[in-house]
Amino acid sequence: MSVRLYLLLIKASIRSRMQYKFNFIFSTLMASCIQISEFLMVALVMMRFGNIKGWTLYEVCYLYGVMMISKAIYRTLASDVHHLEKYLVSGDLDALLTRPVPVLLALMTQNSRILFAEIGQGIILLIIAMRVLMANGQIGWPSIPLTALIICTGAIILFAIGLATAAAGFWLTRIESLQNMTEDASQTAARYPLTLYPKWLQGALLVLVPVGFVNYIPTLYLLRHEGGIGMLLGTVAVACAALWLAMRFWKLGLSRYQSTGS
């Protein structure tokens, strides 16, 4: 029932945003330009200097594509979780509390939009990377369903991180700076092999903010054949644990929320 209701709310939200066709097309084109320019800068550097810490351009391309699609899925299916601060500051969260649906479900379906640019470009990057890696014999056809699994677990992990950060807003109210660290900066860092960073930062990206499990850890198994199947199973376990902890933290924060009317 909750899934059906969620899909209905998402459909209604997307339909309302699609009424502004020019804004939708313009924002999609701008997002495409930004994403393309960011990756091209990395690609040009790697084409000039070759491998980075043993990682080839196409392996980095794979990391980049997985992160891009996972993030786009999270932001598509749970758009305003990332924007909880504005609800807390303006008091608009009170309106969601009066709806006959769970607050988190109502929040996730607000202002939904499908991030076509990010998803499309991520798919293109993965196709390019995987075709070359398959031609080199580095991966085989089973890597396709495994990549789909990695993307799904990645989206869950990113959602869990975003939800836990948003829940901190019930105590902090202003969480933009925190989000810059736990979501924006960490996700940007995880587009590249974690071996590029010092040990303390690698630990932070695997334990404190586990974005390393979105793409880097499963990629070690899939592309570089390191660590065995346990790397992939561990990623699934981290996704489940992160989601459970984030949901618990969210419920705790919501129980402490003081509405503007109280």
From TrEMBL:
- At the top level of its lineage, which domain of life is listed? Bacteria
Query: Is Amino-acid biosynthesis set as a keyword in this record?
Result: no
Decide whether keyword Transmembrane helix is in the record. Answer: yes
Q: Which residues cross the membrane?
A: 21-49, 55-74, 114-134, 146-172, 200-223, 229-247
Which UniProt keywords are present, listed alphabetically?
Membrane, Transmembrane, Transmembrane helix
Question: Where would one find coiled-coil regions in this protein?
Answer: none
Protein name (Swiss-Prot/TrEMBL): ABC transporter permease
| Record lineage | Bacteria, Bacillati, Bacillota, Bacilli, Bacillales
